[in-house]
Structures are given as structure tokens and as C-alpha cells.
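Appendix B: complex inputs.
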Amino acid sequence: MSGAGVLRRPVLKAFARSRQRPVRRQIAPFHRFRLFVDEYLLWHFAPTGERLKPLRQEIAAQTEQMEGLGDPDLVRLCRQPLRAEDLLKPGAGAERIAAVLEVIRRETGLRLRANQIECAVLLLNGDCVELRTGEGKTLSAALAALAAASVGVSTHVVTVNDYLAERDHDLIAPLAARIGLSSAVVLQSDADADKRSAYDCDIVYGTNKTFVFDHLRDKREQHQQGERALLRQTGQALAIVDEVDSVLIDDATVPMILSEPAELPPEVDVVLFRNLIAFARALVPGQERVLDSHGNWRLTKAGIAHLEEVAPQWRHPLARTADVIELAELALTATFGFLEGVAYILREGEVVMVDQATGRLMPDRKWDYGLQQMIEIVAGVEVTAETRTVGHITQQTYFRQYRILSGLTGTAHECRAEFWAIFKLAVKPVAPHAPSRMVNHGLRLFRRADAKWRAVAERAVTMAKDRSVLIGVNDVSETNALVAVFQDMGREVAVLNALSEAQEAELVAQAGQAGRITIATHLAGRGTDIALDAEVRAAGGLHVIIASVMASARLERQLHGRAARQGDPGSYDRMISLEDRGLSEGAFSLLRHSVTWLLRRRILPRFSLAKIHADRDRRARSLRRKTLLREQDMRRRLGYK
Amino acid sequence: MSSLRHPDWHLLGDQRFRRRAAIETSHQMFRGEAFVVLSDRITGHHLRLSERAQDLWRLFDGRLTMNEIWDRLMRRPAIAPSQGELVDWVMQLVGAGLILSDHALDPVLLSERGHKRRAQSIEQRLASPLAIKIKLGDPRWLVRLSYPLVRPLFSRFGGVLVLATFLLALTLALLNWGEVTVAADQTLLSQSGLLMLALAYPVMKLLHELSHCYALHRFGGQVREFGVMLLLFFPVPYVEASDASALPDKRARMLVGAAGILSEMLISSVALILWLQVEPGVERAVLFNFVLIGSVSTLLFNGNPLLKFDAYFVLSDWLEMPNLAKRAGEYLQDLYLSRVAGLRPELNLHPGEAGILGTYGILSLGYRLLLTLTIAYMISGWFFVFGVLLAIWATLMSMIWPLAKLFRKGHRMAKTQNRTRSGWIRQALFLGGIGAALTLVPLPFSAKGQGRIVPLPGAEITAATSGVIGRDLLVDGAAAVAGQEVTRLQNPAQTARRQALEINLTALEDELSRSGADVAQRLRLEREREVALTALQQASEQEAALSIPAPLDGRISWQGGQPPPAGSYVYRGDRLGYVIAPEALQISAAFPAAFSGRITAEAQLVMLLPNGQEIRRPVDRARVVDIGQQVPPELLVSTGGPVPEQADRPGMALDSRLILWAAPEGDLSNWAGARVEARVDLGQASAFSQLLFHVERLFLRVTRL
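Resulting structure:
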């Protein structure tokens, strides 16, 4: 509660390899309201990076001297013992970082720019670095990871996909080997023994999901086997999270669930499900069941009265509670809402879910316990067992466990408050080495979606005469709509859809060729640089069209941030239609609905769009906060591991 | 996730819980339902388990995992709990430390749990700054040592004895009622009495708390904590007697709860009996203080079940409804949400409970609101800024916050029941209706003040000249006719002066009538005669003024109720009395100046005469007297009116007032000089605007200070 507590930061301490002491950065329960204060006020007073200025100056000075050193001396300098907390002090710490810089220069021939060094220092300090895309974040992260590992801190470098983890690790592996550090990449698909040996390395690369799931499995095994369990991870000391906004904001509340199939569905529940289905079928439509505004079947008052009559005879604990109403509505959904051939198909006596957005089959996924079983009863196939949740964590909870958490991204500006409130991550913008040459061509508003797609296609074709064009959309259905328009025009486009990450990255990397049009979602090929052809650069660089209403301004920035990198020229424009899903979807909010109303009348379109984004962000933020508090609350009340 | 599975079940699923040692169980019946109460001998905490949860309690043997327990319970699905209920029970038991897991304790989380408990208690204190508990110690040794002294009282014979004492004291009090009330007035109205009261109070309260301990001791329980609670910053001792909730017999629980009241009543009964026998002196005064505290504090506080003091617990034990107040609150909430917002009710009540909960809930809610507002109002009268802050805080915590919680809960419920829109519409209609009634329905609006019925200035009997009062005075109340002499002053010097002037005039005229004077001399004499004539005329007038006539027809009302004693000297201008005549009376009344803006031309002044008769007259004229301005003398406190005057400037107003005058109708001469309650009708205004006006008035006063 005290003011001093706000600014107290953990310093880097050499207890990195501890299995026993994962330090939790949890919110003290008394300060539930602290979150609000942090989010709305205190983040303005987050410590600045001024403290590190002498260190950076000294690193610059030391770098000169290192060039004359022989290789063995340099390696010795990198290996000599140093207390981890001294790494950020001018003196020995500067010498160490300069030595690592020199190793990088000799191995790769690249001399890191001042802003990259600043970025690495901030990462070691446990900050969130905001650096424009294309400024060499990968190498900065490598520098920070090598420096931290060289003083004995186990370092996890977190990326958003396996392809990037492997690519970045390939860059760092020779460097680490040269200093005598071990490094590895952990993939989701690796065998357990491989994972254990990989986690024992000084520097570990992997995706967020890999780290979280391995943690969940470790905990599960620890519970089951106690002391005999052979854990994978060695604790959580320092995490350098690449694309930190994607991990800690976009995917923060996505629950990571470790589940095991149970033997058989309990007979009691199955009997209840059959009763519920029979009840649902017996209801009079319109009188006892109606469709609500969201298109879900609901019981009317008469329906509830009917249920109250029938339910007490069912032998189930929920039959006498109000929860049975919710279950009955679930049964309505299973019976009348989800239709065979639309929501699912039957294959070999099994229900297979169909993704509503893409129309693809999803054989591995199941609905929640209850709904899945009722659908199976309706479809007349054998009732499957539930998959029991045995471990559950969200990414934000996992990453809060790290003693020092630092992040890298091009778009953190919008989430400064949240990063500080929840993760105590101060967002530090680092200036790019060259000024931006981005041109904004403005916003165009269309009434109908098909008119918009046509306009987008024409615009893309016009711009692609001597430049290259990237079109950003939200999801697969929008991609398909746009691709159809291009097909009508007989124009070849590259589509990033249902491809592996490596293929995506390859396509994105080629997107800089002249005359090329690429359609991508904001996530596709993240972390990949779009290299421009010389002629394209001369003609004005990459042009980005944001062709739909995105969920947040941050996502738009991520998209148009792909243009005008590293001092290149570039431009973008936004084209949206009033029929975009981003405008019509979402729970009711007075602000959003009123500004959408303005937008529909073409009043202050830019302002309205910004407000819609802000409102969505606010909602998502409060959801994340609630999830976090709830998740921690239960654990805290229980008190057992 | 549906309610079939609790989302956090995975945290519990593979844990094996076992019952901790040193936990005692006792069986109790509440409204025909069996409960088991678990009492932790170490922490002194108690937990009540329903019949269904008892099955679960028996299964916590440290061998079964929660998953196995769940499977076993589900073998009897008709009476099994839902997973949500199960998790709730387990969390309660874990939270109370009654069951232990085979899993390792997480020290971080455990320390946070302690932290949270502390934080909660701090939050609680912040939430109710008017009731702060300070823990002082463990009274067990004292109770153990001194219990033999009171043991006889906890027997059948002791009970009869106590009852007999009550009856005797009650009879004596009724027989000596007059004496008792006089003594009570003396104690409450004198400073020394109040001081002694303050000294006797802690003794009485300590005995009160001790008797709770004794009663609990009698039935086998123990009190582990005593301390002081700051109720409204006034220290009141308390004991932590939650052990009583483990007593199986409800009569025993009731006796523990009532022990304090009974002991106070016993002490005051004995004190009353002694007080009637003892000779006056210090001892007698002290005894009476005990009588007073024992009876008054019992009746006002401890004996009132609407506050959470002793009688509340006795009542809830008697009704077999623990947590009566909380449940009553929940019931009212549920009632509002189901009846007004049209949501599905959440509570399942046993037959007969609804009536009790509803009645108790409404009564206690009303009483608490009234008490809070009264206390806040009183404090704001004493220390303004602090009091207003306190009042705002109390209103926030006791009214706004619960309402906000209610609406939030309603919104959540409506959302899950898909009745958000209809719920809000219904609530909006309901609240809108109440709001409209408050803001639109006009209610009579009036200002209260005090006034007097006084004679008009023209009815005064005044001494027009100085003199000595003569003998033949009319008696007070005697009828007089206008011009009739009511008294005659004697002023020999005046008479002598007139006679001297007459002689002088005669001498001058005599001199003028003679011949032989020259012109200049004659002129001087004539001038002298003129002067003498004028002087004589004045002297004659003054002498004539020695006879004081009645100014009007009416009855004489002497100043002070009787005629001035003969031979007393009055100065010119002294007021001797009035002639009371029905047509020569006026009504004047003083009101707070804030009402001045609301007086309309047809405003009516209503006076309540001491005999209960109401007279209603149109206002003749009105005037605002500001601070420091002169107040009509008949309204000053010093003359028997309602308006206080400044100490150093008599006759000047201490605060600003609105003065109204009205002419009487009919014969009010019987009430001349009387001070009466006055009210002025200000037309009609809605309840809301009246409230707004009074709040504005409150703050207007401050800004002027």
C-alpha cells in the first residue's frame, strides 16, 4: 500500500535454478482496488530508464576496447563469475555486456546499434520495450539472453510460434556455444526426456504455449508422484517475451487446460441428460421455448413452470436446484440449436464438430461436458466420457510467476496501464534508428461489404503496379470473400490461410516483391521481416490496406507496422464497411452503440472508430482482470499446492 | 461451463482431506432440521453443517480423494450435493482450518490467507467506523476463580430468587414512582449526577459481560476473549461468547445471551430495594445510578432485538434462526428482485420463515436507518464538518453501498436468466414511480417557529411624568373605560412648582396693572409674563399627567401581574402595564430566516394555543431581522419571547430571523402575553424539494458563519 512498495522492483538475483522457490508476483488481496489505482493513475509514475543511462554510456565506451581482445580473453571475460545483481551496474556489468556484444560482432559480423543495446539493457531490467518493427529486436533479445545466462540466470525466451523459436534459436546457438553457454529450443512435440534436457540449458527458446503446458504437466506430476516426479522446468527466473502484447494481452485469458479422459460418463448424469432431452422435445415451441435476441433457445415462464413440475422426479443433485433451468436450456441448444450437418457431422459413430467460421472439421475438439453428451444423445450415437480437467492456468497467471519478466513488441502503447498494473512491466519506448517514412492515406467508409471488397481489390491492383501490397483482414471468412473478388478480376494473390507457420513466414517474407498482393490476418507471419525489392523501395515501398474493422487499434498498428520498416518508405489506408463483424459483434455497451450510430451516419468516422476500439479494449481489460482475480482467489483460499 | 462441473474442481479433485484433531461436534435442531456444529477447540471457531454436509464430513478420513468422495456421493443422486455445493463446503472447512489436505501447504498462499483475514478485519473497521473492536485479553482465569461466588444463582432456587427480586423491585418501583422519577431527574440534570453515572457505568457493564462468561461457564463453554468496542467512540466492553453456539440446548444458548440483561436487571432491582431503605447520602446516590443504568440501558439497547445486541441473539436462538439479521436482509433483497425486478427467486425458505424474516427485516432496516440518521444529525449539530463527513460516510455505507450491491446482484441474476431488459424496465418503472411520488406529489409545506400574542403599543399604560404611585389603584384584571384614571401619581415638587409659578404670574400681572412704569419696564414685564404663562401651562400639563388614564376600554394588566406598590417612584416613560382589549392585540412570531423567500402573499400563520386550540390568520406584514439588528422587544428571550439576543448588545438578534405579524380575530385577550407554537403554511411542495430546501438551509447557515 505504501508509496515505496509501488516502486520496489525485484533485482536480478542468482537463485535461478531453484525448483523450490518460484517467486509469485501476485496481487496482495487487500489491494484489490490497487489494480484500479495502478491502472488509472500509478502507471504514469512507473520508474523511468534514467537509472540505466550510465550503464549504456559505459557499454559504449567499453565496446571500443573489446575489439582489441583475443578470442580466449574474450571468452574468459564472458565466463568469469559475476553476481547477477551486478549485471546492471556500470563497471563489471558494462564490461560483461560489452564483451557479449563483441562476441556477437565476431560471430555474425553485425555491430549492434545504440538503440538495440538500450533495448537489451531494458530487457535485463525487466521492462517492456516498445520498438518499431524491423529494428532488430531478435538480436537485442539475444544480447539480453546471453548476458543474463552468462551470469548464471536461467533464461526463457518466449516466442509466439515454433517456427520463430527455431529461427531465433538458430541465430543464438553459435553465439552461446562460443561463450560456452548451452542453449536449446523446446517444441510442443518434443519427447519428455528431450524437454527435460532442453530446459536444463542456460537459454531456452520456446512458445508461450509450450512453456505453460510444460508447467501444468510438471505440477500435475508433482501432485501425483510427489518427490519422485522428474520435472521438466527448472523454475521461472527470467522470461524475455517476444511480441509480449500478443502473449500477455491477446491470449492472456485463453485458458490452458490440461485434461485427461475419464473412463465412462457417470450413469447418473447420462440419465439426467436423457431426461432433459426428452423434456426439451416435449416443449411447445413459441409457448414454452422461444428464440432470444442472440439466437439461443430459451425457456419461457410456462416452460420453467413445466420444468418445475417434471424436474423433482429426476434423481440428480441438480434436479432440485435452479441450475436445472440452465441445463434445460443447454438441452434446448443441443436439440434445436445445433443441427447435424451444420454444427457437427457424424463420422464412424462419433460426433465431429464443425468450425462455424471456416466450415472445417475439428475432430480433436469437443464441447463442454454436458452439451457434448446431450448432442451425442440427440444424434443417437454412443455417449462419450467427459474429458476431466486436471490442470488449468491462464497465461497471465503463468507469466506472473517469473522473477523477472520482460517483453518486446512494436505495439505496447495502448496497454501501458495494464502492463504496469498486472505485470509490473513498465513500457519503455525506444527510438528507432531512422525516422518513419510512413504515409497515411486515410479512412474510407462503405455501406455494403461487397462494395468494400471490390474497392479494396481495385485499390490493391492499382497500388501493386510497381509496389507491393499487403491486405490485412480479421479471419478466414473475410479472406475468402476478398479472394473471390480477386478471382473474378483474374488476379493472382498470395493468401495466408491454413498454412504452417514456416510457410506463412516464407510467404510474408516474399511479400515485398513488386506487383505482389498478399492477404494476411494480423497474426500471420509475425516476427518476419518483409524485405523490399529495390524497385519497390524506389516506387514507395510496401502499401498496407487494412480492409476490415479490427478488434483493437493495436492490431491495426501491427498490420501497418509491416510497412516503412528500417527507414524504408511505406503507406497504408483503411477501408471498412458498416457490415463488418467488428462493428456488429460484442455485448451491449452504451458508448459503443452510440458511436457506432455516429459511424453509420458518417459523422466523425475516425473518432468513432477510435472509440469503438477503446471500448472493446476496456471490456477485454476488465475481463482479464476479473479472470486473474478469480483464478488467484480460489488458489489462495485453498492454500494447498 | 455448466453447473455439472465446478470450474475449479481440478484444484481439489486429487486431494485427500482429513478431519483435524481437537474438533468437537454437537448436534442442534433448527426449525425441525438437524445440524451439527463443529467447534474448533484451538481457535474457538464454530461452523454449522447441515444434515447433507454431515455425510461429507464423515467421508473426510484422509484416505479418499475428492474425486472418490464425489463418486461415492453420486451413488445416491437424489440426496447428493451438486459439485458447486461440495466445493463451497470444502472451501469453508478449509478456510476454517477444520480439514487438512495431504498436499503440501503453499506457504506463500497460506501467508496470504492470513494477510487476507487481517485485511478483511481492517476493511470491516473502515466500513463501520462507529463500531471498532479492540481486543484486550483472556478472562478465563477470572471466571474460573470467581464462579463459585455466583454458582447458587444458576440453580432452580437461584432462578426463583432472582425472579422474586425482580417482582419485589417492580412492585416497589411502582409504589414509589413519584420519588423515583424525581431522583432520576436530579441525576440526569445535574453535572455531579452525570459524573457519578459515568463512574458507575463501567462497573455495571463489566458485571454484565462477566455474567455472560458465568452463564457460559455453567453450561460448559468458555470465553476466550474480552475487549472494548468503541461504539460511536464510546467504549463498551464486550466478550467473545461464540462458544455458546455449540451448546445443544437452545434454552441454554438463550440464557447465555440473556445473562447480561438479567444481571443488570438483578443489580438494579437490588439497588432499588436498598435505595428505598438507605438514608440520603453518597451511598444512596450511587445506588440510584445503578438503578438507572440497569433499567434504561437494558430497555434502550440490550433489550432491543432490532440492534445486534444481546436480545437479538436471544431472539434468534428462540426462533431457531441463526444469522437472522443477515438472512432477513437477503430475504428482502430476494423479495425485491423477484417481485419488483421479476426475476426467479433464489432463496428456499421453510414454511413460516418468510413472515418472520420479512417482519424482522423491515423493522430492523427502518430502525437502523432511523438510528443512523439521528446519530449523524446529532453529531453534525455538535461538530459541523466532522459530523457532516461522518453522516455522509454512514449514509454511504448503510444505504448507498447495499443498494449498489443489490443492483449489481440483480443485474447479474437478470443476465443469467435472460431477463435483463424486462428486469431493468420493471425496476425503472418501480423506482421511477417512487421517484415521481417523491418529486411530483405535492405535500403540505410549512415552517415551524414560536410566537407571542402581545398588546399593540397603543394599549400601554405609561407614566407620562415622574412621580410616586398613589394608593387608589385599580386591581389587576379590573375593567377600565377609555380615559378612566387608573392611578394617580403624586409629585409634591411638581405641585409646588406649579403653585410657585402661579404666584409668580399673579405677581407679574399685579405689577402690570399698576401705573407708573415706563415703556421699557412694561415691555420687560410683559415678556416675563409670557414666559411665566408658558411655564405654568407646562407645569399644569405635567401635573395633569400625574393622573394616568386607561388608553382603551378593557381590562388592566399590570406589569408583573399586580399593580405597582403604592409609594414607589416611577420615571417618566416607565411602562406600568397594558390595557388588554380584544381589538388591541397582535400576533408576532419568529421563524428561521431561510423561510423568508417562501412566504407568499396569502400565507397563513397558524398558532397553537396552550389549550390546544388552533388559530389561523393571514400574515399582515413580514420582516427579516439580520444578525445584530434590533428585534421587536416582545420577541426577545429576556421578555419571554423565542429570539435570543447578543450577550454584549442586548436587544440585538443573535441569528437572523423572519418576523411575521398578524392581526387576531375574536377575543384572544385571555392569551395576551402567551408564548405559543407557530407554524406558517408555505403552500405545497414535493417531498424531494422540501428535503432539498432543508439541506440547503443547513449549508447556508455554515457559509454565513
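The longest strand of chain A covers residues 437-446.
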